[in-house]
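Practice set, problem 2.
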Amino acid sequence: MKNFSSAAFSPEVIGLMTAALEAAVATLPEPVHSAHVNALAESILRTAGTGERDPATLQRIALMELQLAPRH
């Protein structure tokens, strides 16, 4: 995971990010790979860091970024 050590979020925002991550992961087909979860989490952290607070938007952006990510 990228370095987010300088990021600071209120408990309320952490709850919104958690909800967005859980909703995003729930849409993935089984088996869910940890790399995909990490990519979703990084996207949500990055997007929330820009000020976005809507869980649906955080989820949608994370899933779009995952879809666009290069395959290894």
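Problem 2, part (b): a different protein.
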Amino acid sequence: MKKYLIIFMSFIILGSCTQKQQEFSSVKKGMTKEEVVKLVGEPTTKRDILVAEVWKYDLADRSVVFRNGNVYDIITSTEARVDSIEASLKNAGKGLKEKLEKTGDTIDSASQRLKDKIDGDSVKKK
């Protein structure tokens, strides 16, 4: 009897894992945390890293990355470790920083040209 109970419980556990994996196909980028919980339940672990939060679902072999409260990415392998996600986010931040610096330089240059033009116009009027 005990043997049959163990087999029965194994089928229930395996069936719920498969069901959760199927439900993960419904998780899409942009969803809120509440929407994800309704679809796939609470995560095994939650971890904050830099500007993101990573929810790990061990049974489904998935991790969900949130930024600003919404799904940013869904990682389908437990091999994707949190430190590699953190490195990816740092690289994205570096690219954004470089773009902002270039924009700042462009604004400074345009501002200087405008100042020079105004100063030149003032000298001509005198």
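Answer key, part (b): Residues 7-22 have pLDDT under 50 and may be disordered. Residues 82-125 form the longest helix (44 residues).
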